[in-house]
Amino acid sequence: MKIICIGRNYSEHAKELGNAIPDKPVIFMKPDTAVLKGNDFYIPEFSTDVHYELEVVVKISKGGKYIQKEAANKHYEEIGLGIDFTARDLQSDLKSKGLPWELAKGFDGSAVVGNFFKKENYNLESLNFSLLKNKEKVQNGNSKDMIFTVDDIIAFVSQYFTLRVGDLIFTGTPEGVGKVSENDILEAYLEDEKVLDLRIL
């Protein structure tokens, strides 16, 4: 199972990190060992600045290569929410040296994934999602603000990687990312339904 992640897919998030708005999807990947099992996230010993990034996640239900955008919606049936945890201090150091981000993005437990839901129950062109930290709303996103839609992403990614059943695509995070600390509680909502509940240790 591959975890394919899209960076800088919301213009306001790109701006808050001082990044240029991309003209094509920015891709990075996480290994399957990044998937968090359980409701506890342990801050890794190699970072003092781990950030949450709430994202809509798509689960691939039909494999393919060179998928056309018009056919992309046939390749996924379920969506959910996930948190892309990022060791921001490590990422900044790696970026300053022109090195890949994997150590900052792909460490064990860095891909939180909740339950998945049938996509036909939602309006994917205007999907609301939000994250609360200690009961305070810190991220509030809507899929209509994506620079690249889910179908755009699938068409683009499948030019390079064959997609297989079970692969996950993290579609990017809106503005409002921030640091987690011990004893924080994160709660993620898809529309008005809580779908993730996480404790930071």
From TrEMBL:
Presence of the UniProt keyword Hydrolase in the record: yes
Coiled-coil annotated residue ranges, if any: none
Keywords, sorted A to Z: Hydrolase, Metal-binding
GO MF annotation terms: hydrolase activity
UniProt-listed SUPFAM superfamilies: FAH
Gene3D superfamilies to which the protein is assigned, alphabetical: Fumarylacetoacetase-like, C-terminal domain
Domain Fumarylacetoacetase-like C-terminal intervals: 2-190
The name this protein goes by in its record: Fumarylacetoacetate hydrolase family protein
Species the sequence originates in: Chryseobacterium caseinilyticum
